[in-house]
Amino acid sequence: MKTEKTLKTPAPLKTINKVKILYLCDSAMIGNYDEAQEEARGIQLEFWDYFGVSPEIEIAKSHADVFDSEKVYDILMFDYGGIGSYGASGLMDSLCRRILQLSDDKPSRFFIMASKMTGWAMQDMIESMPERAANVFLDMRFAKPYLDSLLEEKGIVVPEI
Questions:
Q1: How is 136-147 classified by DSSP, letter by letter?
Q2: Which of 5, 128, 138, 155 is most buried per CB count within 10 Å?
Q3: How much is the pLDDT for 87?
Q4: Alpha-carbon distance 159 to 24, whole Å?
Q5: Contact (Cβ atoms closer than 8 angstroms) between residue 110 and residue 76
């Protein structure tokens, strides 16, 4: 007798709401919220891999959510990598400059690039500036020690993984 294997879906991640993440991505800005939600889920999984917890992520509905508001968040995840490949490098440069300015204005927040292409664009922008912002990270791996401290400050115990 042949038995059929069933695939089990992974258990839901334990989400934490003490850490607020705002996700600014090109897919949401052009109205593709399904793709933006998939990308946000990928960030949650990456966060899970590093810390054993998964934060709730709010997807920015407009640039105003990030730059023109007093929205409260601890971490801004930024992914505009696809836009640079479509000849909109001026927009990417402008957003990178605005994020660097925001990082100066909000030194207690973290700004993490969520894609390699976005990281490369930000790296180019940072290299053209006299000082590097201490709270801007090209990749989550580089932010890990700082995020460990943030989680501890928020009373979140990170399990050994």
A1: EESSHHHHHHHH
A2: 138
A3: 54
A4: 28
A5: yes
Strand ranges (E), 1-93: 15-25, 54-59, 75-79
Q: Which CATH architecture group holds 15-153?
A: 3-Layer(aba) Sandwich (3.40)
Which residues, listed in sequence order, are joined to residue 78 by a DSSP beta bridge?
24, 113
Q: What is the mean pLDDT of each run of 10 residues along the chain (161 residues)?
A: 39 64 87 90 89 87 85 90 61 88 91 89 86 86 87 77 54
Amino acid, res. 147: L
Domain ranges of the chain: 15-153
Q: Rounded to whole angstroms, how far apart are CA atoms 87 and 17?
A: 37
What type of residue sits at position 35? E
Query: For residues 89 and 100, what is the distance between their CA atoms, to the nearest angstrom?
Result: 16
Task: State the Cα–Cα distance between residues 54 and 77, nearest whole angstrom.
Answer: 14
